[in-house]
Amino acid sequence: DAPSEADSGPTAAISCPHGQLMPEQATGAKRVLVPEGFWHFLYEDATSVKNDDLLVCPTFPSDSGECSECSSELSEVACMEDSMRLLKQRQRQSHEKLFSGKSTPLSLDCKYFLIPSSWISKWRNYVNPTVKNSDTPETLNVVIGSLICEK
Fold first, then answer.
1. d(CA 133, CA 91)
2. Are residues 80 and 124 in the same domain?
3. Residues forming beta bridges with residue 66, ordered by sequence position
4. In total, how many domains does the chain have?
5. Which is nearest to 25 in space by CA: 69, 68, 63, 71?
6. Are residues 79 and 28 in the same domain?
7. Long-range contacts for 93-101 (Cβ within 8 Å, ≥24 apart)?
8. d(CA 146, CA 69)
9. Is the model's pLDDT at 108 over the cut of 70?
10. Range of the domain at 14
11. Are 47 and 56 in contact (CB under 8 A)?
12. For position 50, what pLDDT does the model report?
């Protein structure tokens, strides 16, 4: 049999790298309460399957606190994600016509610049709240080169 997650012990998925209870907001860290008798059954079963001293199985009673280090890291990540979401929202609002793809009537009083349409498409995906994990568009310095003719 190939090793499975269950071979790591019943609390492996909710244990953090510091050996403490992983915050529930962390990926894969959802948990359920089980009665003490069932916990003992699971623990004994896990230790009998993997009968060696390498099985480290932390015990987390229902009043266990979450790892403060991991909670801080998750808070920092959430704060950065909120800042990025706000930045993208401001970009969408500031450039609504560009974001929505609506054409802008040209005015003789304005100066216009050319950028690759492929970059605009990437930018639209980047600031679109419904598109998850879109790549940050390259800086325009890099992309403008594609508009320049090389002899």
1. 17
2. yes
3. 21
4. 2
5. 71
6. no
7. 98/123, 98/124, 99/124, 99/127, 99/128
8. 46
9. yes
10. 1-67
11. no
12. 62
